[in-house]
User: Fold this.
Amino acid sequence: MHLKLPNKELLFKAAEWKSLPLMAASLAEGAKVNWVNEEDEQKTALHQSVLGGSLPACEFLLQNGAKINQKDKRGRGALHHAALLGQTGPTLLFLKRGGNQHDVDENGEDPLTIALKQTNADIVTLLRLARLNEEMREDNEIAQGDVTFNDVFRDFSNMASRDPDRLKRNFDSSGPSRQTQL
Assistant:
């Protein structure tokens, strides 16, 4: 398939399409990983990979220099979008890679607030554990990280690697379901 798109737009679309080969080709041809699409609410390829629901695309972009906390026009970073869409795997990835869970969007909502509104227990749990771990570190109560926190993140990571579909939420025409597939 030959598409007549500039490399920057090709990377953006390839992220949405979950096409790692096309993403790699566009980067090899000079696409900028943090290019902002002014015509699509100032989203980046990383935002698109979250919207496309692709954990491998998110990881690929991060490995190639994507800015994890870059915000779109609505003030949402990749972690906001993952929480909004109920994507547990990307949420876990972004937390492990330094995603700022305290950033607020144009509505004054951080990812935890969004996850609570979406009633996504998995993401709420991950965000609360990460926040608790962060607070304990700040208070010098832990040196290397809480064992429970590390165990939970390891378990979610293993699940995301082995069976990523288990971490996806069910959607119907009325929005996200109230149950996850864990």
About this structure: Confidence is low (pLDDT under 50) at residues 170-182. Strands lie at 169-172, 175-180.
